[in-house]
Amino acid sequence: MKARDESDDLKREALVPTSFITINAPGASTTDAYGINDAGQIVGSYNTGDGPQGFLLSGGSYTVLNDPAITSPPIGSGHYTAATRINASGQIVGYYNLSPTRGFLYSNGTYTNIDTGAIQGGTFAKGINDAGQIVGYSYSIVFVPRPI
Q1: In the chain, how many domains are there?
Q2: 52 lies in some domain
């Protein structure tokens, strides 16, 4: 029987099949994916010329994720939305620019704004775990709020 060594493990890892998919939001000039959960749901932002908008790609269908607070002034006025992470429950965090930038949680069809009260730089929600804990930053603090 041959003795097992590290090179055997390396050979096996190199043979793992890998495939890639292309993600292009309909009508978008650019699409950026920022997060994916174990169910294969993907979040990010895309640009159609009206400014970057957040999205959820689930089961082949795109859902636009623009925080309702950003509808006035409308997308395309220098404002944008980015969905940055999604957890196993489908809760999504991100941020939108409405001077200052504000974070958001999107859960079960409802938006909850996340605002640290930072005077400069706004609030950026960047991650969420399966317990619903959100992490992010502003230019003056780093935060980990309790689940909302």
Answers
A1: 1
A2: yes
Residue-number span of the structural domain to which 102 is assigned: 19-142
Measured CA to CA in angstroms, residue 31 lies from 24, 56, 103, 121, 129 at distances of: 6, 12, 20, 25, 24
Question: 4-55: per-residue pLDDT in tens?
Answer: 545 444 444 555 567 788 888 988 999 999 999 999 999 999 988 777 889 9
User: In this structure, is residue 109 part of a structural domain?
Assistant: yes
Query: Is residue 53 in a domain?
Result: yes
Identity of the residue numbered 22: T
Look up the CATH number of the domain holding residue 45: 2.40.10.500
* Cis? peptide before 145, omega within 30° of 0: no
Among the ranges 28-37, 94-103, 117-126, which has the highest mean pLDDT value? 28-37
Percentage of the chain exceeding pLDDT 90: 42
Are the C-beta atoms of 126 and 135 separated by less than 8 Å?
yes
